[in-house]
Amino acid sequence: MPALPQPRDAVEDIFSRLLALHPKLIDLSLDRMWRLLERLGHPETRLPPVIHVAGTNGKGSTVAFMRAVLEAAGKRVHVYTSPHLVRFNERIRLAGQLVDDATLTEALARAERANEGAPITFFEITTAAAMLLFAEVKADVLLLEVGLGGRLDATNVIETPLVSVITPVSIDHVDFLGGTVAEIAGEKAGILKRLVPAVIGRQPPEALAVIERQAARLRAPLSIMGEQFQAHEEGGRLVVADEDGLMDLPRPRLVGPHQIGNAGLAVEALRVAGQRDPAFRLPASAFEEGMRAAQWPARLQRLGPGPLTQRAPQGVDIWLDGGHNAAGGQALAAALADLEDRVSRPLVMIVGMLGTKDSGAFLAPFAGLARELVAVPVPGEHKGQPPEAVAGAARAHGISASVAPSVAAALDGLSAFPVAPAPRVLITGSLYLAGAVLAENGTLPD
Protein backbone atom coordinates (compact mmCIF):
# COMPACT_ATOMS: atom_id res chain seq x y z
CA MET A 1 0.00 0.00 0.00
CA PRO A 2 1.51 3.39 -0.98
CA ALA A 3 2.33 5.82 1.80
CA LEU A 4 -0.22 8.54 2.39
CA PRO A 5 0.98 12.02 1.36
CA GLN A 6 2.44 14.00 4.23
CA PRO A 7 1.37 17.64 4.86
CA ARG A 8 4.62 19.11 3.50
CA ASP A 9 4.31 16.97 0.35
CA ALA A 10 0.72 18.18 -0.09
CA VAL A 11 1.80 21.81 0.22
CA GLU A 12 4.54 21.36 -2.38
CA ASP A 13 2.16 19.56 -4.75
CA ILE A 14 -0.30 22.46 -4.62
CA PHE A 15 2.49 25.00 -5.08
CA SER A 16 3.57 23.19 -8.25
CA ARG A 17 0.04 23.34 -9.66
CA LEU A 18 -0.46 26.99 -8.70
CA LEU A 19 2.81 28.07 -10.30
CA ALA A 20 1.63 26.50 -13.56
CA LEU A 21 -1.35 28.90 -13.60
CA HIS A 22 0.84 31.99 -14.05
CA PRO A 23 -0.60 34.15 -16.87
CA LYS A 24 1.34 34.21 -20.13
CA LEU A 25 0.52 37.93 -20.38
CA ILE A 26 0.04 39.90 -17.17
CA ASP A 27 -2.61 42.59 -17.31
CA LEU A 28 -1.77 45.22 -14.73
CA SER A 29 -5.00 45.20 -12.76
CA LEU A 30 -6.63 43.56 -9.76
CA ASP A 31 -9.27 41.83 -11.90
CA ARG A 32 -7.98 38.29 -11.26
CA MET A 33 -7.86 38.96 -7.53
CA TRP A 34 -11.38 40.37 -7.39
CA ARG A 35 -12.73 37.43 -9.42
CA LEU A 36 -11.21 34.86 -7.05
CA LEU A 37 -12.21 36.72 -3.89
CA GLU A 38 -15.81 36.84 -5.15
CA ARG A 39 -15.80 33.06 -5.66
CA LEU A 40 -14.42 32.64 -2.13
CA GLY A 41 -17.22 34.72 -0.61
CA HIS A 42 -15.23 37.95 -0.23
CA PRO A 43 -13.10 37.09 2.81
CA GLU A 44 -11.42 40.51 2.51
CA THR A 45 -14.65 42.04 3.89
CA ARG A 46 -14.52 39.87 7.04
CA LEU A 47 -11.05 40.69 8.33
CA PRO A 48 -10.10 42.22 11.68
CA PRO A 49 -8.89 45.85 11.56
CA VAL A 50 -6.03 46.13 9.05
CA ILE A 51 -2.80 48.14 9.16
CA HIS A 52 -1.58 48.14 5.55
CA VAL A 53 2.17 48.67 4.99
CA ALA A 54 3.92 49.61 1.72
CA GLY A 55 7.37 51.03 0.94
CA THR A 56 10.74 50.02 -0.49
CA ASN A 57 12.82 49.34 2.63
CA GLY A 58 11.85 48.66 6.22
CA LYS A 59 8.38 47.17 5.71
CA GLY A 60 9.14 43.90 7.46
CA SER A 61 10.98 45.52 10.35
CA THR A 62 8.18 48.04 10.86
CA VAL A 63 5.66 45.20 10.92
CA ALA A 64 7.85 43.27 13.37
CA PHE A 65 7.92 46.22 15.78
CA MET A 66 4.14 46.69 15.56
CA ARG A 67 3.55 43.00 16.13
CA ALA A 68 5.82 42.96 19.19
CA VAL A 69 4.08 45.97 20.74
CA LEU A 70 0.58 44.67 20.01
CA GLU A 71 1.36 41.23 21.41
CA ALA A 72 2.92 42.81 24.49
CA ALA A 73 -0.46 44.53 24.96
CA GLY A 74 -2.23 41.16 24.81
CA LYS A 75 -3.57 41.49 21.27
CA ARG A 76 -4.04 38.52 18.93
CA VAL A 77 -2.16 39.51 15.77
CA HIS A 78 -2.40 38.18 12.22
CA VAL A 79 0.63 39.00 10.03
CA TYR A 80 1.14 38.72 6.26
CA THR A 81 4.64 39.32 4.88
CA SER A 82 6.71 38.29 1.87
CA PRO A 83 8.91 36.82 0.63
CA HIS A 84 9.67 33.95 2.95
CA LEU A 85 13.22 32.95 3.80
CA VAL A 86 13.05 29.17 4.27
CA ARG A 87 9.42 27.99 4.29
CA PHE A 88 6.32 29.58 2.78
CA ASN A 89 4.58 29.27 6.17
CA GLU A 90 6.62 32.27 7.35
CA ARG A 91 4.38 34.52 5.24
CA ILE A 92 1.21 33.80 7.23
CA ARG A 93 1.04 34.22 11.00
CA LEU A 94 -2.36 33.41 12.50
CA ALA A 95 -3.07 34.99 15.89
CA GLY A 96 0.63 34.87 16.72
CA GLN A 97 1.56 31.45 15.30
CA LEU A 98 2.99 30.53 11.90
CA VAL A 99 0.39 28.67 9.86
CA ASP A 100 0.86 24.90 10.04
CA ASP A 101 1.11 22.72 6.95
CA ALA A 102 -2.32 21.12 7.29
CA THR A 103 -4.12 24.46 7.65
CA LEU A 104 -2.14 25.97 4.81
CA THR A 105 -2.82 23.01 2.52
CA GLU A 106 -6.57 23.21 3.15
CA ALA A 107 -6.72 26.97 2.43
CA LEU A 108 -4.64 26.65 -0.73
CA ALA A 109 -6.86 23.79 -1.94
CA ARG A 110 -9.99 25.88 -1.44
CA ALA A 111 -8.47 28.76 -3.38
CA GLU A 112 -7.36 26.37 -6.13
CA ARG A 113 -10.86 24.91 -6.48
CA ALA A 114 -12.47 28.34 -6.55
CA ASN A 115 -10.04 29.54 -9.21
CA GLU A 116 -11.07 26.66 -11.51
CA GLY A 117 -7.79 26.60 -13.41
CA ALA A 118 -7.97 30.22 -14.58
CA PRO A 119 -4.71 32.14 -15.13
CA ILE A 120 -3.53 33.80 -11.92
CA THR A 121 -0.19 34.70 -10.37
CA PHE A 122 1.22 32.67 -7.49
CA PHE A 123 1.19 35.72 -5.21
CA GLU A 124 -2.43 36.50 -6.04
CA ILE A 125 -3.80 33.05 -5.30
CA THR A 126 -1.72 32.56 -2.16
CA THR A 127 -2.81 36.00 -0.93
CA ALA A 128 -6.44 34.98 -1.48
CA ALA A 129 -5.82 31.80 0.55
CA ALA A 130 -4.27 33.91 3.31
CA MET A 131 -7.33 36.19 3.30
CA LEU A 132 -9.51 33.12 3.90
CA LEU A 133 -7.47 32.20 6.96
CA PHE A 134 -7.34 35.74 8.30
CA ALA A 135 -11.14 35.98 7.99
CA GLU A 136 -11.80 32.66 9.71
CA VAL A 137 -9.31 32.70 12.59
CA LYS A 138 -10.18 35.17 15.33
CA ALA A 139 -7.73 38.02 15.89
CA ASP A 140 -7.70 41.65 16.97
CA VAL A 141 -5.68 43.07 14.06
CA LEU A 142 -4.06 42.15 10.74
CA LEU A 143 -0.67 43.60 9.83
CA LEU A 144 -0.73 43.37 6.03
CA GLU A 145 2.49 43.94 4.10
CA VAL A 146 2.40 44.79 0.40
CA GLY A 147 4.19 42.31 -1.84
CA LEU A 148 5.30 44.61 -4.66
CA GLY A 149 4.43 48.26 -5.23
CA GLY A 150 1.01 48.95 -3.77
CA ARG A 151 -1.53 50.29 -6.26
CA LEU A 152 -1.94 46.98 -8.13
CA ASP A 153 -0.62 44.66 -5.42
CA ALA A 154 -2.83 41.71 -4.53
CA THR A 155 -3.11 42.99 -0.95
CA ASN A 156 -4.67 46.26 -2.11
CA VAL A 157 -8.23 44.94 -1.86
CA ILE A 158 -8.85 46.37 1.60
CA GLU A 159 -11.43 49.13 1.26
CA THR A 160 -10.96 50.86 4.63
CA PRO A 161 -7.86 49.92 6.64
CA LEU A 162 -7.41 51.24 10.15
CA VAL A 163 -4.14 52.96 9.15
CA SER A 164 -1.97 53.01 6.03
CA VAL A 165 1.83 53.09 6.40
CA ILE A 166 4.46 53.95 3.79
CA THR A 167 8.07 53.25 4.74
CA PRO A 168 10.96 55.03 2.93
CA VAL A 169 10.73 54.85 -0.85
CA SER A 170 13.77 54.34 -3.08
CA ILE A 171 14.74 52.78 -6.41
CA ASP A 172 13.95 49.07 -6.69
CA HIS A 173 11.96 46.75 -8.99
CA VAL A 174 12.21 49.29 -11.81
CA ASP A 175 10.86 46.81 -14.38
CA PHE A 176 7.52 46.80 -12.55
CA LEU A 177 7.29 50.10 -10.67
CA GLY A 178 9.10 52.68 -12.84
CA GLY A 179 12.58 54.07 -13.11
CA THR A 180 12.25 57.18 -10.93
CA VAL A 181 11.58 57.68 -7.24
CA ALA A 182 8.49 59.72 -8.12
CA GLU A 183 7.04 56.91 -10.26
CA ILE A 184 7.72 54.32 -7.57
CA ALA A 185 6.19 56.58 -4.90
CA GLY A 186 3.06 56.80 -7.04
CA GLU A 187 2.72 53.03 -6.91
CA LYS A 188 3.29 52.95 -3.14
CA ALA A 189 0.79 55.78 -2.60
CA GLY A 190 -1.82 53.58 -4.28
CA ILE A 191 -2.56 51.98 -0.88
CA LEU A 192 -3.87 55.29 0.51
CA LYS A 193 -7.64 55.26 1.02
CA ARG A 194 -10.21 58.02 1.31
CA LEU A 195 -10.27 59.58 4.79
CA VAL A 196 -8.00 56.85 6.21
CA PRO A 197 -5.02 58.27 8.15
CA ALA A 198 -1.55 57.38 6.89
CA VAL A 199 1.83 57.40 8.60
CA ILE A 200 4.76 58.19 6.32
CA GLY A 201 8.44 57.44 6.88
CA ARG A 202 11.23 59.80 5.84
CA GLN A 203 11.10 60.26 2.07
CA PRO A 204 13.10 61.91 -0.71
CA PRO A 205 11.38 65.22 -1.58
CA GLU A 206 10.13 63.96 -4.94
CA ALA A 207 8.56 60.89 -3.32
CA LEU A 208 6.93 62.90 -0.54
CA ALA A 209 5.40 65.33 -3.06
CA VAL A 210 3.70 62.46 -4.88
CA ILE A 211 2.40 60.93 -1.64
CA GLU A 212 1.09 64.28 -0.41
CA ARG A 213 -0.76 64.92 -3.69
CA GLN A 214 -2.46 61.51 -3.56
CA ALA A 215 -3.38 62.00 0.12
CA ALA A 216 -4.86 65.42 -0.66
CA ARG A 217 -7.04 63.92 -3.41
CA LEU A 218 -8.34 61.32 -0.96
CA ARG A 219 -8.48 63.66 2.06
CA ALA A 220 -6.32 61.12 3.89
CA PRO A 221 -4.71 62.75 6.96
CA LEU A 222 -0.93 62.35 6.97
CA SER A 223 1.51 61.99 9.84
CA ILE A 224 4.95 62.45 8.28
CA MET A 225 8.21 61.66 10.04
CA GLY A 226 10.12 64.89 10.43
CA GLU A 227 6.93 66.98 10.30
CA GLN A 228 3.95 65.76 12.36
CA PHE A 229 6.13 63.40 14.38
CA GLN A 230 9.81 62.89 15.19
CA ALA A 231 11.84 59.79 15.99
CA HIS A 232 15.49 59.81 17.01
CA GLU A 233 18.02 58.17 19.30
CA GLU A 234 19.05 60.04 22.41
CA GLY A 235 21.22 58.72 25.21
CA GLY A 236 20.87 55.16 23.93
CA ARG A 237 17.07 55.43 23.93
CA LEU A 238 14.39 55.82 21.25
CA VAL A 239 12.47 59.07 21.51
CA VAL A 240 9.22 59.46 19.56
CA ALA A 241 7.30 62.73 19.79
CA ASP A 242 4.03 63.87 18.20
CA GLU A 243 1.07 66.08 19.13
CA ASP A 244 0.04 63.52 21.78
CA GLY A 245 3.34 63.89 23.60
CA LEU A 246 6.74 62.29 23.93
CA MET A 247 7.60 58.61 24.40
CA ASP A 248 11.01 57.68 25.83
CA LEU A 249 11.55 54.01 24.94
CA PRO A 250 14.33 51.41 25.05
CA ARG A 251 16.61 51.34 22.01
CA PRO A 252 15.16 48.82 19.51
CA ARG A 253 16.47 45.28 19.72
CA LEU A 254 16.96 45.18 15.94
CA VAL A 255 20.46 46.37 15.07
CA GLY A 256 21.36 49.46 13.03
CA PRO A 257 20.62 53.19 13.00
CA HIS A 258 17.96 52.63 10.32
CA GLN A 259 15.93 50.64 12.84
CA ILE A 260 15.40 53.84 14.83
CA GLY A 261 13.30 55.13 11.93
CA ASN A 262 11.47 51.82 11.47
CA ALA A 263 10.67 51.60 15.17
CA GLY A 264 9.53 55.23 15.26
CA LEU A 265 7.26 54.61 12.29
CA ALA A 266 5.74 51.58 14.02
CA VAL A 267 5.16 53.52 17.25
CA GLU A 268 3.48 56.39 15.41
CA ALA A 269 1.30 54.03 13.34
CA LEU A 270 0.00 52.41 16.52
CA ARG A 271 -0.56 55.79 18.19
CA VAL A 272 -2.58 56.92 15.16
CA ALA A 273 -4.51 53.62 15.28
CA GLY A 274 -5.33 54.39 18.91
CA GLN A 275 -6.69 57.80 17.93
CA ARG A 276 -9.05 56.12 15.48
CA ASP A 277 -10.10 53.13 17.60
CA PRO A 278 -9.98 53.12 21.43
CA ALA A 279 -9.18 49.38 21.35
CA PHE A 280 -5.70 50.33 20.10
CA ARG A 281 -4.86 52.80 22.86
CA LEU A 282 -1.99 50.76 24.18
CA PRO A 283 -0.14 51.17 27.50
CA ALA A 284 3.37 52.60 27.52
CA SER A 285 4.61 49.30 28.95
CA ALA A 286 3.58 47.52 25.71
CA PHE A 287 5.67 49.91 23.62
CA GLU A 288 8.63 49.42 25.96
CA GLU A 289 8.39 45.62 25.82
CA GLY A 290 7.85 45.67 22.05
CA MET A 291 11.10 47.54 21.45
CA ARG A 292 12.99 44.93 23.50
CA ALA A 293 11.23 41.90 21.99
CA ALA A 294 10.96 42.60 18.24
CA GLN A 295 12.68 40.09 15.98
CA TRP A 296 12.96 39.95 12.19
CA PRO A 297 15.14 37.26 10.61
CA ALA A 298 17.92 38.17 8.15
CA ARG A 299 17.83 41.85 9.05
CA LEU A 300 21.28 42.27 10.57
CA GLN A 301 20.81 38.97 12.34
CA ARG A 302 23.79 37.71 14.25
CA LEU A 303 24.19 34.04 13.35
CA GLY A 304 24.69 31.61 16.17
CA PRO A 305 26.37 28.19 16.14
CA GLY A 306 25.39 25.87 13.31
CA PRO A 307 26.77 23.64 10.55
CA LEU A 308 27.57 26.69 8.40
CA THR A 309 28.99 29.14 10.94
CA GLN A 310 31.25 26.47 12.47
CA ARG A 311 33.19 26.43 9.19
CA ALA A 312 34.57 29.89 9.94
CA PRO A 313 37.75 30.28 12.00
CA GLN A 314 37.28 30.63 15.74
CA GLY A 315 36.27 34.09 16.90
CA VAL A 316 34.74 35.27 13.61
CA ASP A 317 31.60 37.37 14.15
CA ILE A 318 28.99 36.50 11.46
CA TRP A 319 25.99 38.66 10.51
CA LEU A 320 23.26 38.09 7.92
CA ASP A 321 21.14 40.63 6.08
CA GLY A 322 18.89 40.40 3.02
CA GLY A 323 19.60 43.96 1.80
CA HIS A 324 19.87 44.25 -1.98
CA ASN A 325 19.26 47.80 -3.23
CA ALA A 326 21.03 51.16 -3.00
CA ALA A 327 19.08 52.41 0.02
CA GLY A 328 19.54 49.06 1.74
CA GLY A 329 23.28 49.29 1.12
CA GLN A 330 23.40 52.73 2.68
CA ALA A 331 21.49 51.56 5.76
CA LEU A 332 23.66 48.46 6.12
CA ALA A 333 26.91 50.37 5.73
CA ALA A 334 25.78 52.84 8.40
CA ALA A 335 24.91 49.94 10.72
CA LEU A 336 28.28 48.26 10.16
CA ALA A 337 30.07 51.57 10.73
CA ASP A 338 28.17 51.86 14.00
CA LEU A 339 29.27 48.34 14.99
CA GLU A 340 32.84 49.24 14.03
CA ASP A 341 32.71 52.29 16.32
CA ARG A 342 31.58 50.07 19.20
CA VAL A 343 33.88 47.08 18.63
CA SER A 344 36.52 47.43 15.93
CA ARG A 345 37.00 44.41 13.62
CA PRO A 346 38.00 44.10 9.95
CA LEU A 347 34.88 43.72 7.78
CA VAL A 348 34.69 40.89 5.25
CA MET A 349 31.59 40.76 3.03
CA ILE A 350 30.16 37.62 1.41
CA VAL A 351 27.79 38.82 -1.30
CA GLY A 352 25.41 37.15 -3.74
CA MET A 353 22.91 39.18 -5.78
CA LEU A 354 20.15 38.66 -8.31
CA GLY A 355 20.65 39.75 -11.89
CA THR A 356 17.89 42.37 -11.56
CA LYS A 357 19.78 44.31 -8.87
CA ASP A 358 22.38 47.07 -9.23
CA SER A 359 25.35 45.58 -7.40
CA GLY A 360 27.45 48.72 -7.84
CA ALA A 361 24.83 50.95 -6.21
CA PHE A 362 24.39 48.46 -3.36
CA LEU A 363 28.13 48.12 -2.69
CA ALA A 364 29.19 51.76 -3.11
CA PRO A 365 28.50 52.72 0.55
CA PHE A 366 30.95 50.02 1.73
CA ALA A 367 33.94 51.65 0.04
CA GLY A 368 36.51 52.37 2.73
CA LEU A 369 34.60 50.19 5.21
CA ALA A 370 34.95 46.63 3.85
CA ARG A 371 38.42 45.08 4.00
CA GLU A 372 37.55 42.29 1.56
CA LEU A 373 34.56 41.01 -0.44
CA VAL A 374 33.91 37.44 -1.58
CA ALA A 375 31.26 37.12 -4.28
CA VAL A 376 29.18 33.92 -4.36
CA PRO A 377 26.28 32.60 -6.45
CA VAL A 378 22.72 32.74 -5.10
CA PRO A 379 21.69 29.10 -4.56
CA GLY A 380 18.67 27.61 -6.30
CA GLU A 381 16.92 28.50 -9.52
CA HIS A 382 17.01 32.27 -9.02
CA LYS A 383 18.57 34.35 -11.80
CA GLY A 384 21.63 35.47 -9.93
CA GLN A 385 24.43 37.71 -11.07
CA PRO A 386 27.66 35.90 -11.92
CA PRO A 387 29.96 36.22 -8.91
CA GLU A 388 32.61 37.66 -11.22
CA ALA A 389 30.27 40.58 -12.02
CA VAL A 390 29.64 41.29 -8.33
CA ALA A 391 33.38 41.13 -7.61
CA GLY A 392 34.00 43.52 -10.51
CA ALA A 393 31.47 45.99 -9.11
CA ALA A 394 33.24 45.83 -5.74
CA ARG A 395 36.65 46.47 -7.30
CA ALA A 396 35.21 49.45 -9.17
CA HIS A 397 34.59 50.99 -5.74
CA GLY A 398 38.08 50.17 -4.46
CA ILE A 399 37.07 47.05 -2.49
CA SER A 400 39.41 44.06 -2.80
CA ALA A 401 37.32 41.18 -4.14
CA SER A 402 37.46 37.51 -5.05
CA VAL A 403 34.92 34.79 -5.85
CA ALA A 404 33.96 31.50 -4.20
CA PRO A 405 31.54 28.75 -5.26
CA SER A 406 29.39 29.01 -2.11
CA VAL A 407 29.00 30.73 1.24
CA ALA A 408 30.46 27.65 2.91
CA ALA A 409 33.55 27.86 0.71
CA ALA A 410 33.86 31.59 1.44
CA LEU A 411 33.78 30.88 5.18
CA ASP A 412 36.34 28.09 4.74
CA GLY A 413 38.58 30.59 2.98
CA LEU A 414 38.57 33.09 5.83
CA SER A 415 41.64 31.40 7.27
CA ALA A 416 43.52 32.87 4.29
CA PHE A 417 42.95 36.38 5.67
CA PRO A 418 45.60 36.72 8.40
CA VAL A 419 43.98 39.63 10.23
CA ALA A 420 43.66 40.38 13.91
CA PRO A 421 41.29 40.64 15.60
CA ALA A 422 39.10 37.99 13.93
CA PRO A 423 36.98 39.62 11.23
CA ARG A 424 33.35 40.63 11.29
CA VAL A 425 31.61 38.88 8.38
CA LEU A 426 28.49 40.25 6.68
CA ILE A 427 26.61 37.84 4.39
CA THR A 428 24.29 39.93 2.23
CA GLY A 429 22.94 40.90 -1.19
CA SER A 430 19.72 38.90 -1.49
CA LEU A 431 16.87 37.57 0.63
CA TYR A 432 17.12 34.33 -1.36
CA LEU A 433 20.76 34.02 -0.32
CA ALA A 434 19.79 34.82 3.27
CA GLY A 435 17.14 32.11 3.26
CA ALA A 436 19.61 29.55 1.95
CA VAL A 437 22.10 30.52 4.68
CA LEU A 438 19.49 30.15 7.43
CA ALA A 439 18.44 26.76 6.10
CA GLU A 440 22.02 25.50 5.80
CA ASN A 441 22.85 26.71 9.29
CA GLY A 442 19.68 25.20 10.78
CA THR A 443 18.56 28.64 11.98
CA LEU A 444 14.90 28.48 10.97
CA PRO A 445 12.57 31.46 11.48
CA ASP A 446 9.78 30.77 13.97
Concise synopsis of the structure shown:
The chain has 446 residues and is α/β, with parallel strands linked by helices. It is 38% helix and 16% strand.
Number of helices: 15
pLDDT under 50 segments (min length 5)?
1-6
- CATH superfamily label of the largest domain: Mur-like, catalytic domain
Whole-number count of domains: 2
**CATH class designation of the largest domain:** Alpha Beta
Terminal CA distance reads 35 Å
**Principal-axes shape call:** globular
Largest sheet geometry = 8 strands, mixed
Backbone structural class? alpha/beta
Helix % is: 25-40%
Strand content: 15-25%
- Beta strand count: 17
CATH A-level architecture of the largest domain? 3-Layer(aba) Sandwich
Classify the fold: give the CATH topology of the largest domain: UDP-N-acetylmuramoyl-L-alanine:D-glutamate ligase
Mean pLDDT: 94
Using only C-alpha atoms, the radius of gyration works out to 22 Å
Strand order of the largest sheet: 4-3-2-5-1-6-7-8
Search tags:
446 residues, alpha/beta, UDP-N-acetylmuramoyl-L-alanine:D-glutamate ligase, Protein-Tyrosine Phosphatase, Chain A, 2 domains, eight-stranded mixed sheet, six-stranded mixed sheet, 38% helix, globular, disordered N terminus, Mur_ligase_cen, folate biosynthesis, nucleotide-binding
